[in-house]
Amino acid sequence: MQSGEVTTTFEELLSGWIAHQRWFAGKGRAIEGVTVESEVELAPELSHLIVAVHQGGTRDRYQVLLGRSEDIPPRLKHVQIGPDTYDAAHDAEVTGALLRAMAENADLGGGPGTAPLRFRHLDGVKIDVAARSLVIGAEQSNTSLIFGDAYICKLFRRITPGLNPELEIVTALAEHGSANIATPYGWIETELDGEPTTLAIMQEYLSVANDGWALALTSVRDLYASLPGVGADEAGGDFAAESYRLGTATAHVHREMADAFPTGVIEPSEVKRMAERLRRRLEQAVAEVPELAEHAPVAHAAYDRLADLGGPVPVQRVHGDYHLGQVMRTPTDWIVLDFEGEPGQPLAERRALSSPLRDVAGMLRSFDYASRHMLADHPDAAALEARAQEWAARNRAAFLAGYSEGTGRHLSAEEAVLLRALELGKAVYEVLYEARNRPTWITIPLAAFG
Fold it and tell me: Looking at residue 440, which CATH number applies to its domain?
């Protein structure tokens, strides 16, 4: 960047542009200032920026691939930042620079007060630098570039100092030969606040896989469209066999994470504190969403049973944000994606040990959402409610059976108590989310308390 007025002008343009990006986390709050903390040239007319956005006394950092052109082509007008600048993540003519740097294990930039960008590939990996990119348009918090039919490179737009859990987990699982992850190929990192910080990760692109959420919805639609009296086990799109396989794959990934990372236990005193945290969140949710009050006794009873558990609870690294949208079905197996953890949570919390039943609870809630979300505005919602319940119950049971197969044992009575408490805790969070964002969907999480 030039100094003086040109820099100020660019940062004003950047401020106006960044406020409207889907991945910008500070929507609804005034931007007090934007500063460019780092700029590294990747190729002629292409730079990597780390941008600090100041709001309400806080600072969030974002990464931007900045393209420059005196004549921005029409295909890039929708990502234009200023008269001669644009978001180059959308420009397949220049993003090959990321592949070339990764293939070369290059260190780019750096100097007084700034750290270089480090591009790395895994040992034994050969990267095709000729592949061209295409941006996936549906993401909320990141930007992913598909290179040909081989790679998907996820740029973490909002940057938090530290090692991203996804890079940490998938590289460790790859070393353990996991069959249920997308193969990692490389990553980009830098130093922020004295910590190695993940900027991007590149993995195998599953070009012939199907999204778990989409497959589940197809099954639900088939059931809803079938003749009266046709059960979920008889409808053409029965999903239970896939739910079983998904449960088994989930157990395998949990076992592999336990092998790859430290494990531990939480003692009964900490379990009691967990129950109290769940109880406080419930009370806060009831205060905000009065409809939850009549269901609160069900959750309180579950938390009471949790607090009364007498033994320690095993904990390990987990996925942390597990649902049907985080899994893909290939021709051979289920693949688990997006090990980042729950969006918006601190890195330390996302990397903390937890019960693997937290992931199980998340997937059970996802089955309920798949079965019921189409009923929110459906004219025959009342008539279809029993079918929704049947589909959810069938697939939840199949998933749990598959999980038991994968672990080699059934859940104990104590584990069932923990799972119920975790699932209701997740439902409380969902009630709050739906009340704030999609009020017509609030009946979905409320049904969990029945």
Answer: 3.90.1200.10
